[in-house]
Amino acid sequence: MIQLENITKTYSGKAKVNALKGISLTIEDGEIFGIIGKSGAGKSTLVRCINMLEKPTEGKVIIDDKDLTLLSEAQLREERKHIGMIFQHFNLLSSRTVFDNIAFPLELAGASKEAIQKKVSDLLELVQLTDRKYNYPAQLSGGQKQRVGIARALAGDPKILLCDEATSALDPQTTKSILELLQDINKRLGITIVLITHEMSVIKDICHRVAVIEGGVIKESGRVVDVFSNPQSETMQEFVKSIINTELPAGLKKLGVSNQPAPDRAMLVRLRFKGSLTGDPLVASVVRKFNINVSVLYGNIDYIQNERFGYLVIIILGDMQKQAEAYSYIKTLPVKSEVLGYVPGNH
Ligand SMILES: Nc1ncnc2c1ncn2[C@@H]1O[C@H](COP(=O)(O)OP(=O)(O)OP(=O)(O)O)[C@@H](O)[C@H]1O
């Protein structure tokens, strides 16, 4: 388990920068934990505090009950062997082959030639680069370079893998294959993965939990499916919007959405649901129960690691009182709902 307790980091130079302002987080063993934030939010500083490449100004970094902030340099070097890291720009040694890049940490640790041969061969197979072992980094694609980075990070059998914008330099297709590899490593080897990114799609594709950071502060954290279906902070709402369109169509806005009910207006409601309940049975039950018309304006259903979540915007037509009753009924159901306003065209 990784516990960050009240971490602050101040860079002192000509201008003092308070990069982290009291971060507390717990990351469980075997999780894929995502930290998302915009440029300058403090993501890299935070992830580098986990392996103490960056020393927190205050606070504790506790990994499996050991507070890393209390260790000597020599003890830290020992602890870092259990923490692998991969980088946006791969950080490979250009004068070494793929095989020798992956062997490098093992050589430093004094492993025997036979042990290195066996370990590197296994890792090459895991990242599917066996046929590239004699190539140099310059002869590889971005995705292949990152695979080498991953194999090298795994050479010391780490418990934790830190990923610093690991897919930001890759195209969408290659990003997908690297994320699948990370997911596979997490499942097969049980390694805890902490991943920082500025892309919500990366969080959605593989993370179990997520925290959003802005201005050195965690604004919100939770299970990815919960955060996607019901983001609380403005920052998270913005990130969710970047991949799920929950905006009202422009045409509807033009019609004039009022916040006052009126006999000639219909109620516009947005529903957010997750899990087994979806829009169709809900709409059907409202129609049946109140004998009114409900039309589905638009919706979006998606999956996060096999859990379903979605948005639906519906228009409840008919008598004003029945609209209000129908909405009161919807409020009793296990969905998040909000009245977006009242639109003309009630009939
Ligand atoms: N070595 C340093 N010295 C001084 N200030 C720094 C240093 N490293 C980072 N900072 C500052 O700390 C703040 C957080 O930076 P950090 O790199 O952690 O953010 P980030 O979210 O990773 O951003 P990006 O996505 O652009 O890399 C920024 O204001 C940055 O300028």
From TrEMBL:
SUPFAM superfamilies: ACT-like (SSF55021), P-loop containing nucleoside triphosphate hydrolases (SSF52540). It comes from the Bacteria. GO terms for molecular function: ATP binding. InterPro entries: AAA+_ATPase (IPR003593), ABC_transporter-like_ATP-bd (IPR003439), ABC_transporter-like_CS (IPR017871), ACT-like_dom_sf (IPR045865), MetN_ABC (IPR041701), MetN_ABC_transporter-like (IPR050086), NIL_domain (IPR018449), P-loop_NTPase (IPR027417). The keyword Nucleotide-binding applies. PROSITE patterns: ABC_TRANSPORTER_1, ABC_TRANSPORTER_2. SMART domains: AAA, NIL. It holds the Pfam family ABC_tran. Residues 2-240 form the ABC transporter domain. Keywords: Amino-acid transport, ATP-binding, Cell membrane, Membrane, Nucleotide-binding, Translocase, Transport. This is D-methionine ABC transporter, ATP-binding protein.
